[in-house]
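Reader question, answered in our methods column.
A reader sent in the components of a multi-part assembly and asked whether the whole thing could be modeled at once rather than chain by chain. We filled in our standard form and ran it. Here is what they sent:
COMPLEX SIZE: two components
ENTRIES:
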Amino acid sequence: MAGDADRKPVLSKKIDKFFTGLASAFSFVKRFFREVFVPPYELKEVVHQCYRIGVESLPLISLTGFIVGIVFTNQSRPSLSEFGATSWLPSLISIAVVRAMGPLVTALIAAGKMGSSIGAEIGSMKVTEQIDAMEVSATNPFKFLVVTRVLATTFMIPVLVMYTDFVALMGSFLSVNANEMVSMTTFFVQVFESISFLDIISSVLKSLLFGFTIGIVGCYKGYNSSKGTEGVGRAANSAVVMAMFLIFIEELLVLQIVNAIRMM
Amino acid sequence: MEEKVVEIQGLMKSFGDLDVLKGVDLDLYKGENLVVLGKSGSGKSVLIKIMVGLLKQDEGSMKVLGQEVSTLGTKALNELRLKIGFSFQNSALYDSMTVRENMEFPLVRNVKNLTRGEITRKIEELLDSVGLPQSINQMPSELSGGQKKRIGVARTLILNPEIMLYDEPTAGLDPITCMDINNLIVQVREQYNTSSIVITHDLTCAKVTGDRQAVLLDGQFKAIGSFDDVFAHAKDGRVKSFYDYNFIDS
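And here is the structure of the entire assembly that came back:
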């Protein structure tokens, strides 16, 4: 019986490999949706992964969000002050943070931290036959390893995004308060007046998409890593690169859709 | 007539251009320890991976406990897998879990209505039988190679398998630990009444653990029989040379 290696490429080896990879990724995603609704649900492992992804990321997310808030405020101030419009800073920052920067910064950090960790962990389990060991003990490794991690990233990234938004706005407030002597109440009243329900909903939906992407890409790369430690390293690395690439594309697509909704 | 627990007929498996198994025939009888010998890359591990459905053969038949493995659906395959214990070459302990969690993992997922006390009792009993009762709360990274193998065997025994498959049980171990593992394999058969296939290229392991030896060369079994039959009266030069730990390529 001829294996995949015997098959002659249709166009060229590279193009063939690209489409084969695409088909394999598609069937991986399809398998996720097939398995996610079928018991057993491995809830304990989902909670464990949520803890790892959520709580263990807090220090990094807090620091990054806070710095983003301060830096963005300080960078925007000179341009606004030319027009005597520094009072618009809270509005500008809140829109930028909630609509784009919060989800994007959180997702990129999570892709770097979680994506690589998931890719390396599952890749290493594959190489050391731990996944085979699960399978022969009549446990579905896809459900235990992939479904739980993808659910955890999908649900935790929106939570982390909201937290990043809050921390970034706090950073921004400190900067505005120090320079423009604006009180916290005034700052946050202006913040909430500027952002709409659509901003929050689109931010949450986008974060869900980013979380799903980070989880599924990390798991896919790890699950399909080739043998050896080099393969594990490559799985971790390509999980980050691929997740970041997809996050930017998704950001662009969601932006177009939300803008179209705004125009309606 | 002795009852067959595994029946293999005309089994073929290729990876790309490489033909690994070229029409393998083999039977495993109830209660026996069968050793499969062969040089690295000869397809020994492929054979037992097909047995548990981790790989699929290209052609031929693989019947385990009367069921054709390649035709089983997921549920039936998982039910069959519960009757087969697979001890991996590198133990394959879950390195993010303690020994207790490693052993609990297959048990809580496959045996319902067990109390916490029953689970602990079962784990302690098995750790006792492999001589490592003190390791229960250790992480795999804290164990030596031999200890990992023992825990790996204990983990497979927790589901009371009828068939045990050992993939290179003594690979990478010192001679004394090898002897301990060999004795453990014999002890498991006696204590748990299992039938086993031991994949190895260690002749001491083969002699101590095996009732029958099967030598896999060029994708086919070249000799099957008792240790003395296979090696003392070997007609195939390569089988004979295996005895001297030396392969001569034809």
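What stands out: Residues 4-243 of chain B form a domain with the Rossmann fold fold (CATH 3.40.50.300). Strands of chain B lie at 4-15, 18-29, 33-37, 59-64, 67-68, 84-87, 163-167, 195-200, 212-217, 220-225.
Send us your own complexes using the same form.
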